[in-house]
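Lecture notes, part 5. Sequence design as translation. It can be helpful to think of inverse folding as translation between two languages: the language of shapes and the language of residues. The source text, in structure tokens, appears below.
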């Protein structure tokens, strides 16, 4: 059986004195910074009248929303048992454990608060925001690959990778599938829609496209991904990721179908 050996990648990118800086942390930092740069370009293109204070605080609001939402989402959806008996684990973010769907909710709440404070159209702002989110997804999934986490199921496919942490059998590199499908390809699609079409005139449709595409792809990739160890399969043999993605698809379709110019 042909398989690819996992490259010798250290989860720690570098050290500063005694502080370990991990690729996972860098993925969040670089993703947020790149997202900010691209978002500001998009907002300027849409003629948003943002004060200097509003521009400076976008990163603050988004960072808090994504990290708090991502962590609480992970605890609520995937590790509630540990949090009940050891509440301190909620704050141990360096041990990993972030939920995309939780980060999405947290980012949405932060966006709403931000839009209300600075008097900008909420859904129009989110339309611009979702066009840069795939950059963070791409970097985050690459970091998952480096950490040998969220691995795929055992396979005899020539694309199979032997992850030392997961044993000697090759598995689907589902992190790389997601990095490509939910990251790079989705980024290209959203950017083309934003810059090359008039879809922006129909507020909410860009958000709808993002929700639908991500939701469908996540449901499909989960078929190749090992279910979460803490909870396994749930109702009807679905994983938590699939269950959480179904409302995304429904919300996305609603925005695409019912939102008007």
């Amino acid at each position: 059986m042909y398989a690819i050996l996992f490259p010798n990648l250290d989860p720690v990118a570098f050290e500063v004195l005694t502080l370990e800086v991990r690729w996972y942390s860098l993925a969040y930092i670089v993703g947020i910074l790149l997202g900010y740069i691209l978002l500001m370009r998009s907002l300027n293109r849409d003629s948003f009248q943002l004060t200097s204070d509003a521009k400076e605080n976008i990163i603050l609001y988004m960072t808090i929303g994504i990290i708090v939402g991502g962590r609480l989402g992970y605890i609520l959806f995937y590790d509630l048992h540990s949090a009940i008996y050891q509440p301190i684990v909620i704050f141990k973010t360096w041990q990993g454990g972030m939920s995309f769907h939780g980060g999405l909710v947290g980012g949405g709440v932060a966006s709403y608060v931000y839009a209300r404070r600075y008097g900008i159209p909420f859904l129009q702002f989110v339309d611009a925001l979702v066009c840069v989110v795939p950059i963070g997804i791409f970097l985050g999934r690459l970091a998952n690959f480096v950490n040998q986490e969220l691995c795929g199921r055992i396979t005899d496919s020539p694309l199979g990778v032997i992850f030392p942490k997961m044993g000697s059998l090759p598995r689907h590199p589902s992190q790389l599938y997601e990095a490509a499908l939910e990251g790079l390809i989705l980024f290209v699609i959203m950017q083309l829609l934003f810059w090359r079409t008039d879809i922006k005139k129909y507020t909410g449709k860009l958000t709808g496209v993002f929700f639908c595409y991500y939701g469908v792809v996540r449901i499909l990739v989960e078929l190749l991904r090992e279910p979460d160890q803490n909870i396994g399969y749930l109702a009807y043999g679905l994983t938590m990721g699939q269950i959480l993605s179904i409302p995304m698809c429904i919300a996305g379709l609603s925005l695409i179908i019912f939102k008007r110019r």
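The translated text above is only one of many valid answers, since several sequences can fold into similar shapes. Residues 101 and 244 are 7 Å apart (CA to CA).
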